[in-house]
Amino acid sequence: MNLETRQCQNCHNDFVIEPDDFDFYKKIDVPAPTWCLDCRMQRRFSFRNERHLYKRKEALGGKEIISIYSPDKLLKVYSHKDWWSDKWNPDDYKKEIDFSKPFFGQFKKLLFEFPWAALFNTNSVNSDYCNYTTDNKDCYLVFGGDFNENCCYSTFNFHSKDTADVYWVERCQLCYETTDSKNCYRVFFSKYARDCNNSMFLFYCSGCSNCVGCVGLRNKSYCIFNQQYTKEEYEKKMGELGLNSRSGIQEFKRKMSNFVLKFPHRYAQIIKSVNSSGDNIVEGKNCKRCFEITGPAEDLKDIFLGGLNGRDLSSCDHLGHGVELAYDSWAAFGGSSNIAFSLWTRTCHNIRYSYALTDCSDCFGCVGLRNKQYRILNKQYAKNEYEALVPKIIQHMNDVPYLDSGGRIYRYGEFFPAEFSPFAYNETIAQEYFPLNKKDCLEKGYQWKDLETKNYQATINPEELPDKIEDVSDDILNQIVGCAHKGECDEQCTTAFKITSQELQFYRQMNLPLPVFCPNCRHYQRMKQRNPIKLWHRKCQCAGKQSENGVYTNTIQHQHGDSPCSDEFETSYSPERPEIVYCEQCYNTEVA
Is the pTM of this model over 0.90? Predict the structure, then answer.
């Protein structure tokens, strides 16, 4: 088929469906979308609460548990352990299909009658306050991170130890306030650091040790702002910088933010990949408009956070581990295949419109089943009955569509309406990537949750905290620290927080000052360091001998000589941003 332009029924902007999209839709047997890419992603994200934890009573036994569902939500919530136990039977929850009513409404009724797992936290040891995680030990407020030990306040950290306040790091130890880094030891306030140690404020550096405030260095030691020092000079200079104090760190941050703008930035982090576009892609082949892909992965399009032997995937997020042929879904794992319009499926095949299935196949509109086949709304059918009934349901969904509160039409081929989400919009990752205020949120048909009034008062203000950790006594563990944002930001501020014994020990060991922002505000600050999951078409800003804006002078002649580079690309750096953006070849000529 030819390229086709359609109008999104949600935002009413035009979007393009390309010929290879139609090929994929035919392969997985779904109609073309009526929502644009961003609106589809935003809708899926509104079903994923990662960070907001609450205490509530468990419906099975009445004990107090930690849950991602606030106590005001009228849901049947079981602890993670009990949800997976044989104390109850998922077969007790099933519906007969009613062809006089919209299918989506019938699914919603089943969904909200069924028990919900309080958290997604598997094989944890002393890590109760973690979500979407597995195999963590002695971790606190870790979200989406697996195989960690003694880590806290972190998201998407993997195989890491004794680390705090990081985002998307792998095999790191004793690291702090670091993002998008790998194989680092004792690295603070850094981004895109690889195989580095005993360093602070690194940006696009690899193989570096004892470096501070450096950009684009490879295998260097004893450098400050890219200037080489002897070991003795470096140690003396470090003593003068005062990076063991909060005031010294803040001053250095200001200098570093200006320093990084003097160097070219690689248009995208696409490593060992072929015919791929997006950002943060490793070992991808034919991955288009994809973000956070850890390969090998092949034939992916419009995917956020996936890979791991995945292939033939479109418009999905948070999936991996051998998933094949999935569309408009999130959290599919364990070699699942032929999944569409579903959430959290593990080792499943031929699934449509389902939630929290494990080891299931040939299910349509099902919830919470395990080791089942030929189910519709959780009811068992014979193989021939199932195969005859599913096409009738699909036709019924088209003939009797569901209308949400905003008048949007849901036929077969649409993901679940956002009003089916058990979460308020600002409880989910949708607020992190597509932020809305309360007014706009409600107008768009999403739910909103006002911040709960806290019954505590700060006992110490952030400006009263000692500038250095050496001046902090154990009494800080008894204090309630006021957040410096005072709830006046757009970062889900909790207004106050406590210092745990685990993190106090960490700050003392690393000689780092106490934070003045609550964990939520710190998380949002890390998120703001990362580029958006959006692409712009741009041209390389290498003008020949120097950058287009004249700030950076090339150190070596490039392949295009003194003439401007003609390369064009898709990048997550918008044209309005101040960074100097080079194509891969120009960047590698200067940095690699």
Answer: yes
